[in-house]
Amino acid sequence: MQRMPFLFFLSYCGDDGRGGLVREFYEDLRDEIRRRTTEPEEQIGFEYGGMREGTLWRSTVADGLGTCRVFVPLYSPRYFGTRFCGQEWGIFAERQRLHEQQRGSAPELIVPVLWEDVFANGPGRIPKIAEDIWTRSDGLGGSYPTLGLRKLVQLRTRYRDEYQDVVDRLAGVIISAAEQYELPSPAAPIDFDTAPDVFRPDDCAGVAQIPLQRPGELTGGGPRHVHLVVAAPTAAEAAQERTNVDCYGKRSEDWMPYLPAATKPVVRYAMAVADEQDLTPHPIGVSDGLSELLEEAESEGELVVLLVDAWATRMPAYADALRPYDDRLYGNCAVLLPWNLADEESEEHAPALMTAVVSLFKKNARIPHPTFRGGLHSVEEFTQALREVLIRTQSFVFEQHPVPELVNAGAFVARPLLEGPGAA
User: Is the same domain home to 231 and 380?
Assistant: First the structure.
């Protein structure tokens, strides 16, 4: 079934989306447009982070690009070095070309946002197809042209008025453009595998390539790794505490708390969410080395998420292994406690289990700490909670390790082709 068209499609690099700043801007822009129009909220904007786990992303993104009325790219050095972003731009630009061919006029439906100042060192720093679109406005002065919108979002308390001016101006331009033109949709399904990257000379002749940084050279950048630590007993260990051990296996990582509704280990769902947020997941069972892992992850700017079975907190070996977590409040770490209401044995022992959890995690469970989440009764609740705590922990790491300005990015390098929307 054909999806209804979105008013605008937000195109950005996955690296720029880390930390939640892009999502904050998208929600503010969407809300401003909603206030000014009668568009249904679900049809105002498309942003990758809003896709649910299990979504067929290729067809979903393709439908968004094939039907959206306005294309909003976030200009940054990383954006123009990302193949997927170049393909998105090319797909939308082809719809513009078809409109011009059919009606004789060139529609101006690409509304760029200066996420970072890519013009600081003069012309030729970005592909010509993007350089040819005017990005300056008399109504958007102040710090926006020099700092870029990322800084205004990050420091929105200081730049509140300037930030709101940018959002207001962009909302007006998007609404006006959408009302002025109506683009044709592609006659055939969009195939990302064959779509050209208009930012690369080898895909599209005559397009300039910009200087880029190698993915591993971002000193002080955002987190790229998340350690998924499963604190659950094996089936043999669980049998010492409880009767029903169907949800356990030979290893801690085999724990399937949402049986019978969901038949995969919970760490598999967690890995999918990590991948969705462009993080490399590292699933492991909890051990006596948790303290060292927490310290190392904090110093390296990496994330740690503990997936805790309440039954494990009553077992001395697991309780001892988990205890170092509560010694301090880690901003880059989180705890999630799945709880299946269909598990009759857990429901029967709920008071004792909760007492054990609170006793073990005194600081985090009683504050309550925003990245300590319990009562997750389904896979859907679990994955949504994980998305939220990953955004919070990434934001914390960004504050501790600010992303450097990448105006002068260095030598020309080839970028690896990664799958997925906004992948770098």
Answer: yes
Q: Tell me if 412 is assigned to some domain.
A: no
User: What is the residue range of 371's domain?
Assistant: 225-400
- In the prediction, which pLDDT does 253 show? 94
Q: What CATH number is given to the structural domain containing 340?
A: 3.40.50
> In terms of Cα–Cα distance, which of 221, 247, 213, 222 is closest to 233?
247
The number of folded domains in the chain is 2
- Is residue 410 predicted with pLDDT exceeding 50? no
pLDDT at 415 over 60: no
| Within-domain flag for 279 | yes
For 111-159, what is each residue's pLDDT tens digit? 999 998 887 655 557 888 888 787 766 556 678 888 889 999 999 889 8
What is the 3 state secondary structure string of the chain?
A: CCCCCCCEEEECCHHHHCCCHHHHHHHHHHHHHHHHCCCCHHHCEECHHHCCCCCCHHHHHHHHHHHCCEEEEEECCCHHHCHHHHHHHHHHHHHHHHHHHHHCCCCCCECCEECCCCCCCCCCCCCHHHHCCCCCCCCCCCCHHHHCHHHHHHCCCCCHHHHHHHHHHHHHHHHHHHHHCCCCCCCCCCCCCCCCCCCCCCCCCCCCCCCCCCHHHCCCCCCCEEEEEEECCCHHHHCCCCCCCCCCCCCHHHCCCCCCCCCCCHHHHHHHHHHHCCCEEEEEECCCCHHHHHHHHHHHCCEEEEEECHHHHHCHHHHHHHHHHHHCCCCCEEEEEECCCCCHHHHHCHHHHHHHHHHHCHHHHHCCCCCEEEEECCHHHHHHHHHHHHHHHHHHHHHHCCCCCCCCCCCCCCCCCCCCCCCC
* Distance from C-alpha of 378 to C-alpha of 261, rounded to nearest angstrom: 8
Give a yes or no: residue 422 inside a domain. Answer: no
Co-location of 84 and 195 in the same domain: yes
Within 13 A of 340's CA, how many CA atoms are on the CB side?
21
